[in-house]
Amino acid sequence: MAANPPDAASPARPTVPAERCTRMEEVRAGIDRLDRMLVALIAERQGYIEAAARIKGDRGTVRDPARIEEVVSKVLAEAARAGLSPAIAEPVWRTLIERSIAHEFEVFDRLRAKG
């Protein structure tokens, strides 16, 4: 049975680099491809959040303000190197961190409730 050809949004199909886009379809295809990649990376990150919930022995250690600031600082440095605006990077990561902490609390509590 022949494989289905990749659709326009498939990571296998090359997209036009942003600086060469001339049509909105090209822009949207590039964004859609990147969104799929971001989802996969955030899902992988979530796995580490769940590992932290499993490893940490005390619920009080789930939120670590010093670690939050360390992560944001590293992200802003990397964003500067990559040409990502700090006005995008910082609020996106702070939201990601807060949602990750909330998820970690949920997993921490669920694991401890099982006994």
* Main sheet specs: none
Per CATH, the class reads Mainly Alpha
Structural class: mainly alpha
Query: What is the gyration radius calculated from CA atoms?
Result: 19 Å
Q: Architecture, according to CATH?
A: Up-down Bundle
Intertermini distance: 49 Å
Which term fits the overall shape? elongated
Q: Summarize the amount of helix as a percent range.
A: 55-70%
> What is the number of strand segments?
0
Strand percent estimate? under 5%
Assembly state of the chains shown: single chain
**Residue runs with pLDDT of under 50 for 5 or more positions:** 1-9
Structure, described:
This protein is an all-alpha fold. The protein has helices spanning 24-55, 65-82, 86-113. The longest helix is centred in the middle third of the chain and has 32 residues, at 24-55. The termini are far apart.
